[in-house]
Amino acid sequence: MCASGGPAMPKNSLRDIRQVRPDPSALKALAHPVRLRMLSLLRLDGPATASGLATRLGLNSGATSYHLRQLALHAFIVEDAGRGNARDRWWKAAHESTHFGAGPKEGEALEADMAFGQAALNWQIMQMQSALRNQVNLSPEWRKASTISDYYIPLTSGQAEALVKKLQDLLWEAMRSAPPMGGPYPDGVEPFAVILHGFPRPPEGSVEP
Question: The HTH arsR-type domain covers which part of the protein (predicted)?
């Protein structure tokens, strides 16, 4: 996720990826579904104006501007000084990745993690459902490259943590080797989503149908 485009990275060249670790108050602000979607659009598709985002999200300009101000207040987005003017302000994501959930937490910090986690999960489910509906429009090559998979593996908590880290390191390396999000991209290159969930299987009866 990034606000600017670029050519493919030279072989063996890795780029820096901007990452934010928000405090509980910032994470709670980002847990609002509209703000989370706005930030995602700015990361995935690049800079935009309030009016452009309002059209895409089906919001009025006042609500869009309010949510943008909240994102800017917590430093998730910044004004793109190289575009627009005083009447037509452009906004861009300040970071490509949001990091949360690390380490033991309680109280306000745990509540913020849970609220953001729920908002992020809802957004991810929407993306996966859209991807499934779009399968019929994909080329055979992209259908072959896509997957809907789950794996259940008996592990200790330490083994599970090591496995998740190994997967995350692999994905992080792929991100650093790839062009920034937002395009333009080289021929044949498309944004490819990998949504990773790892968790102990919930007890029977604890999951709503």
Answer: 25-118
